[in-house]
Amino acid sequence: MRPYRGLTKEGKWVYGWYCEIIDGKSLIIRDKSILTHPRGFIYDFDEVIPKTVGQFTGLKDKNGTEIYEGDIVKADWRTGWRTGKWEIVFSDGGFMMNIIPDAHAQIFIQNEFVEVIGNIHQNPELIEVKDNG
């Protein structure tokens, strides 16, 4: 199982394992926080904003930055329609890249050609389409 990340209400990214509890709260259990206790385990967790939760793809960009669902990457193939900004999404059972702003163009992540430049939660300006007319 791959780890997740989520944004707290204070604007801090936390990383670990995702859990939704009965009262509707979304939690990230920090992966290095499991401690043994005489009565079981103690977990250190943070409540996160549910829509900001994204799973780690298992890949890193060309600079070694981990790529998560919801990240925005810049692709540079030097030629062709693939150059531009892409959003990382989970689709059809795998992680894919959706071109921004046309979500109809979708390809598998080619991490050696991409660089993480932000995410859809903190950098919405990267996905907005500017009307020049």
Overview of the molecule:
The radius of gyration is 17 Å and the shape is elongated. The protein has 133 residues and is mostly beta strands. The chain has strands spanning 4-7, 13-20, 26-30, 35-37, 40-42, 45-48, 54-60, 66-68, 71-75, 84-91, 94-99, 106-108, 114-119. The strands form 3 sheets. It has a 6-stranded antiparallel beta sheet with strand order 6-3-2-1-7-8, with no helix packed on it. A 5-stranded antiparallel beta sheet has the order 12-11-10-9-13, with no helix packed on it. A two-stranded antiparallel ribbon has the order 4-5. It has 2 domains: 4-51, no CATH class; 55-126, SH3 type barrels (Roll). The chain contains no helices and 13 strands.
Which keywords apply here?
133 residues; six-stranded antiparallel beta sheet; elongated; mainly beta; 13 strands
Give me the strand/helix succession: EEEEEEEEEEEEE
Q: Given the helix and strand composition, which structural class is it?
A: mainly beta
Gyration radius, in Å = 17 Å
CATH topology of the largest domain: SH3 type barrels
| CATH architecture assignment name of the largest domain | Roll
| Total strands | 13
- Low-pLDDT stretches are none
| The CATH fourth-level homologous superfamily of the largest domain | YopX-like domains
**Helical percent range?**
under 10%
Tally of domains? 2
CATH class of the largest domain: Mainly Beta
What is the typical, i.e. mean, pLDDT? 82
Shape assignment? elongated
**Terminus-to-terminus distance:** 47 Å
The number of helical elements comes to 0
Summarize the main sheet. 6 strands, antiparallel
The share of residues in extended strands comes to over 45%
Query: Strand sequence of the main sheet, in spatial order?
Result: 6-3-2-1-7-8
